[in-house]
From TrEMBL:
This is Branched-chain amino acid transport. Pfam families: AzlD (PF05437). The chain crosses the membrane at residues 12-29, 49-70, 76-94, 99-118. The lineage of its organism: Bacteria, Pseudomonadati, Pseudomonadota, Alphaproteobacteria, Hyphomicrobiales. Keywords: Membrane, Transmembrane, Transmembrane helix. InterPro entries: Brnchd-chn_aa_trnsp_AzlD (IPR008407).
Length: 120
C-alpha cells in the first residue's frame, strides 16, 4: 500500500495523513514538555541546551525564508529581504523590544521591495 498523501483514494485519507504525519509527531513533544517542565530547573544545563537548539532552529528557518525563499517572496530582491530582517531587528531593539514595531518596519521595507519589483 502506498501511504503517501495522494497514495490512497479514500476521501478521509488526507485528514488521517495530516493527523498522523503532522499533528501527532509535534504534539507528542509539546505534551512531554508540559509534563516535564515542572521537574526541570530553569538554570539546568539540559534546559540551556534545549533553548539553544530551539533558537538555532528558529534562526535557520528565518535564514532559509530570507535567503532561499519560495513563491512571491522569491521575486523581491535579496537586498530588500535582508534589509527587512536587519531593519526589523534594529527597530525591535531601538523600540524597547516592541515586536509589533519591528514587524511593521520589516514589512514596510518588504512592501517597498515588492513595489520596486512590480508585484504591487
Amino acid at each position: 500500500m502506498n501511504l503517501t498523501f495522494f497514495g490512497v483514494d479514500a476521501a478521509w485519507w488526507p485528514f488521517l495523513f495530516i493527523l498522523l504525519a503532522g499533528w501527532l509527531p509535534t504534539d507528542i513533544w509539546r505534551y512531554l514538555g508540559v509534563l516535564s517542565a515542572g521537574r526541570i530547573s530553569e538554570t539546568s544545563r539540559s534546559l540551556g541546551l534545549v533553548r539553544a537548539i530551539a533558537t538555532a532552529l528558529v534562526a535557520a528557518v528565518i535564514a532559509r525564508l530570507v535567503l532561499y525563499p519560495g513563491g512571491t517572496l522569491e521575486q523581491i530582491p535579496t537586498v530588500f529581504r535582508v534589509g527587512g530582517l536587519a531593519l526589523g531587528f534594529a527597530t525591535f531593539l531601538l523600540a524597547r523590544r516592541s515586536i509589533v514595531l519591528g514587524i511593521l518596519a520589516s514589512q514596510g521595507l518588504l512592501l517597498a521591495g515588492a513595489w520596486q519589483a512590480g508585484l504591487i
